[in-house]
Design goal:
Elements lengths: L4 E4 L5 E4 L3 E2 L6 E5 L6 H9 L9 E2 L1 H6 L3 E5 L2 H9 L5 E5 H5 L7 E10 L3 E5 L13 E4 L4 H12 L8 E4 L2 H9 L5 E5 L2 H8 L4 E5 L8 E7 H5 L3 H20 L4 H9 L7 H10 E3 L3 H9 L2 H16 L11 E2 L8 E3 L2 H8 L2
């Protein structure tokens, strides 16, 4: 049995490593998580240090607090999208971009923003490519019809280029790094930790541009099914996820636990060390407090991003049809296909 380690945090918060409690008296809920700083870095780290258990039938202290059994499914990002669309999970860690099309067939609610990409998505190139215009005629590889292609197109736009003049073809984000190193491709776009791993593995590869050009457009979130939220314990499930996220963020923001938390998170990123993780979290800017999350969901910036950038891009790429465009609401509207709903953050932060 793992050691139980208790650390006192600010405002009297208690963190427990290794404690597990038997299951709730209602059906479990499942969240799909992929490798990304504010996703696996928070939810899988929360399992590692015992805040939640993550396996069906056992509960950590946060699950016990909300009387909900959370099953954490660790998978790749593309599978997160598929699992959510097919109804195989109750929630998934998705971007605002990749929550839009699934909501056409399965009503979705963004319950919390976790971060915004501010350099974490990057276009990497091999020697000989020195400017954006050098990419013309070269096939750039990355996850198509998703956040990588969005980042590529919108960064080109920010640089004054027409994305239609460039070639983009699909490739798994992890394979982008591998094939760049093997010189089978000349350019690709992927995200951390693959970006950092690739640059570390081959110094000849360089970052041509990244999502710092479009900060605030790629919003990493937890998206839940409206049907799942309506089940018995659904709201508690959402609140428990939010509670878990902010608890890990408090650990990360606390001087006494900052280094240890980043080191634990680094184990989920190809064993990146503390210094590397400090770079990682700068390039992925966390909405680390309820105030920051509520400001985004209640403010004017995100509606503008969705209206002016995400929706037109999704239409152009054929991800959604114009006559089937999902209704997007900032607030709570059961008739809407996709809601960015602050009520769950508000509910989660009221319960001590």
């Amino acid at each position: 049995m793992r050691k139980i380690l208790i650390s006192a945090l600010s405002a009297g918060t208690i963190m427990v490593w290794g404690l597990s409690i038997m299951a709730a008296d209602r059906a479990p809920f499942t969240i799909a998580v992929s490798e990304y700083p504010s996703w696996s870095g928070t939810f899988l780290t929360a399992c590692d240090i015992g805040l939640i258990d993550g396996a069906e039938g056992k509960m950590g202290p946060i699950e016990k607090k909300w009387n909900v059994d959370i099953v954490v499914k660790d998978t790749d990002y593309d599978s997160c999208i598929t699992l959510f669309v097919n109804g195989n999970v109750d929630a998934a860690c998705l971007t605002n971009i990749d929550s839009l099309a699934p909501s056409v067939t399965r009503k979705a609610v963004a319950i919390i923003p976790t971060s915004t990409s501010a350099g974490a998505d990057a276009c990497l190139v091999r020697p000989g490519i020195n400017t954006v215009k050098d990419l013309k005629g070269i096939v750039v590889r990355g996850l198509s019809s998703s956040v990588s292609e969005y980042a590529f197109d919108k960064c080109l736009e920010a640089l004054g280029e027409d994305a239609k003049a460039y070639k983009f073809e699909s490739l798994d984000p992890v394979q982008v790094g591998v094939t760049l190193q093997s010189e089978k491709i000349q350019a690709g776009i992927t995200w951390n930790p693959v970006v950092m791993e690739t640059l570390k593995a081959d110094p000849k590869i360089k970052r041509l541009f990244d999502s710092s050009l479009i900060k605030g457009q790629i919003i990493d979130m937890v998206t839940a099914s409206r049907d799942s939220l309506g089940k018995e314990g659904g709201k508690d499930f959402a609140c428990a996820l939010i509670d878990t996220y902010y608890t890990v963020c408090r650990l990360m923001d606390n001087e006494k636990t900052h280094d240890k938390t980043l080191t634990s998170m680094g184990k989920r990123f190809a064993n990146l060390g503390l210094k590397e993780m400090q770079v990682i979290v700068k390039e992925t800017q966390f909405y680390s407090t309820p105030e920051k999350g509520l400001e985004l969901f209640k403010g004017q910036e995100l509606p503008k991003v969705m209206k002016d950038h995400v929706v037109p891009w999704a239409l152009e790429k054929g991800l959604v049809e114009k006559n089937k465009m999902p209704k997007v609401i900032f607030g709570n509207d059961p008739s809407a296909e996709l809601c960015f709903d602050p009520q769950y953050i508000e509910a989660a932060t009221k319960k001590k």
